[in-house]
Amino acid sequence: MQRVLNLVRWLASRLTDLVLLVLLLGGARGAWRRRQGDSDRRRRVQRGVLPSLLDRYPGAIAAPRRPVGLRSVPLDRIVGTMRHPSQNTADFLPLPKLRGTNWRGRWQRITRAIDRLETLPPVDLVQVGDEYYVVDGHNRAAAARRAGGLEIDADVTQLLIPGVTQPGQARFDASSLIGTDEIRQAAQGRQARAVQKRDAIEDVSRRELADDQGEHR
User: Fold this and answer.
1) End-of-domain residue from the set 47, 65, 82
2) Does residue 217 lie within any of the structural domains?
3) CB environment 29-49: b (16+ within 10 A), e (fewer)
4) 70 phi and psi angles, rounded to 5 deg
5) Are residues 8 and 32 in the same domain?
6) How confident is the model at residue 155, as a pLDDT?
7) Rounded CA gap, 79 and 56, in Å?
8) Is residue 89 within 8 Å of 95, Cβ to Cβ?
9) Comparing C-alpha atoms, which of 97, 172, 107 is closest to residue 138?
10) 43-88 tens-digit pLDDT
11) Number of structural domains, the chain?
12) How many CB atoms lie within 10 A of CB 134?
C-alpha cells in the first residue's frame, strides 16, 4: 500500500512538472509568434510607399509658407514626403528600384557618420498642422530612425493650409507670404533650398561625396 502511495505521489509531482513545462513552452511560443507578427508588420510597413503631402493636401502647392527655422523634431511626427509622386518607402529609404550602387555608397557613408557620432546637417521639413514632411534629407531621417533616434535637427518651413494650420500655430503676415516656386520644385523631387537641380535621390554627404566640401548632408 505504501508503495502505491509513493507511486501516486511521484506521478503527481511529475505531472505538476509536466504542466509547468507545457505552460512555459506555450508562453515562449506565444511570445515568438508575437515577435514574428511584429516583424512581419514592420516589413509590410517598410514595403509600403511613403505618403506624399500633395496626395493628402493637393492645395498645398499654392499654400503660403512661413520659415520657422531650426527645430528638433520628433521622428514619429515626420509622416511623409514632399516628393510627388513619392520615391520612398515608408521607412524613408528610396524605392528598391532606386537603390543603386551610388546610393548604397552614400548610405554607408551617412550610417558610418552616425556611428562615429558626427553631427549631420539638419534635414529640410515642411510642417502641416502637427505633422512634418521631408523636402530634403530622406536618407538622414531613415538612418536616424534605424539608429533608434527619437528626434532630428530640422530646418522647418510651415505651410499655412486653411483648416489644417490651427489658430496660434502661425500668423499670416508679410513674412509668411512667400512664393511657392520652391514648393513646386520639392514636389517634383528637387530640393527647395537648392538653386541647381538635384538627382532624384538626394546627395547625402557633402564632405565625403564632394571633395571641396567639409560637412555632411
Assistant:
1) 47
2) no
3) eeeeeeeeeeeeeeeeeeeee
4) -75, 130
5) yes
6) 97
7) 11
8) yes
9) 107
10) 444 459 999 999 999 988 889 999 999 999 999 999 999 999 999 9
11) 2
12) 27
Q: What is the pLDDT of residue 20?
A: 67
Rounded to 5 degrees, φ, ψ at 143 are: -65, -40
Q: CA-based Rg of the chain, rounded to a whole angstrom?
A: 26
Give the chain's residues under pLDDT 50. Answer: 41-46, 171-180, 183, 188-217
Q: What is the pLDDT at residue 46? A: 47
Quote the CA–CA distance of 30 and 114 in Å, as a whole number.
36
Side chain identity, residue 164:
V
Clarify whether residues 78 and 33 are in a common domain: no
Nearest to 94 by CA among 46, 148, 41: 46
How far apart are the two ends of the chain, measured CA to CA in Å? 84
- Which residues are 125's β-sheet partners? 134, 156
Whether residue 60 is found in the same domain as residue 142:
yes
- Structural domain boundaries enclosing 12: 1-47
